[in-house]
Amino acid sequence: MLEKLLEGQKDNLMELVMSKLGVSGDQAGGFLTKLFPMIQGLMGDGKLDPSALLKGDVSALKNGLDLESLGSALGGGKDKAEQGIDAVAGPIAETLGKLDNPMDMLSGMLGDDAGGMLKKGLGGLGKMFN
């Protein structure tokens, strides 16, 4: 779902990770491939407030992710993962912020039942986009 919303930005995000962290394309791609489903999981479980991410606050994101796994994709550990998250959080937030109606798009990708659960889990943010 998140990967579909950011589909057009994946190459740019990979380049950002490669240039800021000095990693290969395979490492940057592996990092993003792990990162997107982890973010989706946090959102789906109600453990991540997307409005915080849209404002550039990545502390909740960092606290909820498996940083060791993300760091290993980049050839490092937790610190490398945090650097990678810092590199992509702003562009991800900017891309999502430009969507006309992100909640409807998410609902369409998840199906009606899952979309309703997502809106309920996101609380006020879901209402803001309807």
Q: Mind sketching the topology for me?
A:
Elements: H1 2-5, H2 10-21, H3 25-44, H4 50-54, H5 59-64, H6 67-73, H7 78-97, H8 102-110, H9 112-122, H10 124-128
Name the features:
130 residues, mainly alpha, globular
Question: Can you describe what's shown?
Answer:
With 130 residues, the protein is mostly helical. 76% of the residues lie in helices and 0% in strands. The chain starts with a helix and ends with a helix. The chain contains 10 helices and no strands. It has one domain.
Order of helices and strands: HHHHHHHHHH
Low-confidence stretches: 105-130
- Overall residue-averaged pLDDT value: 77
How many helices? The count is 10
For the terminal residues, how far apart are their CA atoms?
Answer: 19 Å
Oligomer designation: single chain
Tell me the number of strands.
0
Structural class: mainly alpha
Which term fits the overall shape?
globular
Helix content: over 70%
**Nearest-angstrom radius of gyration?**
14 Å
Number of domains: 1
